[in-house]
Amino acid sequence: MVTVKPFAAVRPPRNLVTEVAAPPYDVLNSEEAKTMASEKSLLHITKPEIDFDPILPDHDQKVYDKAVENFQAWQQKGWLVQDEKPCYYVYSQTMDERTQYGIVLCAHTDDYASGLIKKHELTRKDKEDDRMIHVRIQNANIEPVFFAYKDNEQINAIVARYVAGESEYKFTDENGFGHELWVISDDADIALITKLFTTEVEAFYVADGHHRTAAAARVGSEKRSQNPAHTGKEEYNYFMAVCFPESQLKIIDYNRVVKDLNGLTESQIIGMLGYDFDVMCMGTEIYKPEGLHNFAMYLGGKWYSLTARPGTYDDNDPIGVLDVTILSNLVLDKILGIKDLRTDKRIDFVGGIRGLGELSRRVDSGEMKVAFALYPVSMEQLMNIADTGAIMPPKTTWFEPKLRSGLAIHKLA
């Protein structure tokens, strides 16, 4: 079973939450963050390169120093204040009339090492290193990770009881998504939540934040090795996560755009696709994949339906049956010569939240030559793959809405 604990969050006063709370560090580029950031925005802490003119590279030592300076200043000015006692928190997100309710808690780094916190994607060391530096220099988890867990009726009942009451925060972000947070400070409820997670929840599944999770675990290990009096109960053994019951989560599509046709013509591409797919031209109107193993392709101003033929994939292979694997093997590698999705600069990835119109726009602009839209992976597939210890191809899942940063921060000391 997993190990969890409450924590005394550092968070903005109610009247400042909309000024402080911000999108996650990896949703905006530096220029976008600089334009969006108001005086009190957490972006000055998570993307402090925006405080320099011109904007500095985000790995510059001056940027790291500025992050620490800003975090301290926000606390000194009262824009971030630490709660008096350890609590749990309920955080809800609403998009398209669908609401998901997560519990904000501290998970244990040992659970990541032992596999009780299950991942489904590989991480890149350079991104891990960058996130590790941020955790180390701040001695805090500034942004949470996003976990799923298998539904528990008693936990759901506690959450339902709290969300029926008045919330601490309630606001709508720039995308029209709703965010709300409740504080669970009652000692009996805190004890019950801890008991339920540690006796009935077998595992957490990393939904979003693989690099932040890995970085938090590495910082915990580092601090452990530096402390000869280590007991395992120190705050640095824990990191902040928002944990949602899997039944409330929905994965949306994560699509691909490619810069060139690998020296082939459009007609050659279509002809080669015919070996493994049933190919139909759908015209100029956007075509959306209708189910598993059906893909949409935008090429030469037209949309095509590509349906993988039986025998081109293995239904008994949890990875081989994934549409991202089918597309990677039969199209990106076999036809377009893209061997490694993690390193090849010819391919880019577009979250489904931007809509399929973004795919045609990038092709029509001349930036890209061809685009592919995929049917989204299910939560059942994600959890089954994580349970087997297998790893999905890169850029397989996209969760929306993204967790808002700044609603809670966890100090490691």
Describe this structure in words.
- By secondary structure, this protein is of the alpha+beta class.
- The protein has 13 helices and 21 strands.
- It is 31% helix and 24% strand.
- Strands 1, 4, 5, 6, 8, 9, 10, 11 and 12 form a 9-stranded mixed β-sheet that branches. A 6-stranded antiparallel β-sheet has the order 15-17-16-19-14-18, sandwiched between helices. A two-stranded antiparallel ribbon has the order 2-3.
- The relative contact order is 0.17.
Outline: globular
- How many H/I helical runs? 13
Q: Span between N and C termini?
A: 25 Å
Per DSSP E runs of 2 or more residues, the count of β-strands stands at 21
| Low-pLDDT residue intervals, each spanning 5 or more residues | none
Helix content: 25-40%
The biggest sheet, with number of strands, parallel, antiparallel or mixed sense and barrel status, is: 9 strands, mixed
Structure class: alpha+beta
Descriptive key words:
31% helix; nine-stranded mixed beta sheet; 13 helices; 24% strand; 413 residues; alpha+beta; six-stranded antiparallel beta sheet
Describe this structure in a few short sentences:
The protein has 413 residues and is of the alpha+beta class.
Secondary structure topology:
Blueprint: E1 4-5, E2 10-11, H1 17-20, H2 30-36, H3 43-46, H4 61-76, E3 81-82, E4 88-95, E5 98-108, H5 109-114, E6 117-118, H6 125-138, E7 140-141, E8 145-149, H7 153-163, E9 169-172, E10 178-184, H8 187-200, E11 204-208, H9 210-226, E12 238-245, E13 251-252, E14 254-258, H10 266-273, E15 277-283, E16 294-299, E17 302-308, H11 323-333, E18 347-351, H12 357-364, E19 370-373, H13 379-388, E20 398-399, E21 410-411
Parallel strand pairs: 6-11, 8-12
Antiparallel strand pairs: 1-5, 2-3, 4-5, 4-10, 5-12, 7-21, 8-11, 9-10, 13-20, 14-18, 14-19, 15-17, 16-17, 16-19
Helix pairs in contact: 4-6, 6-9
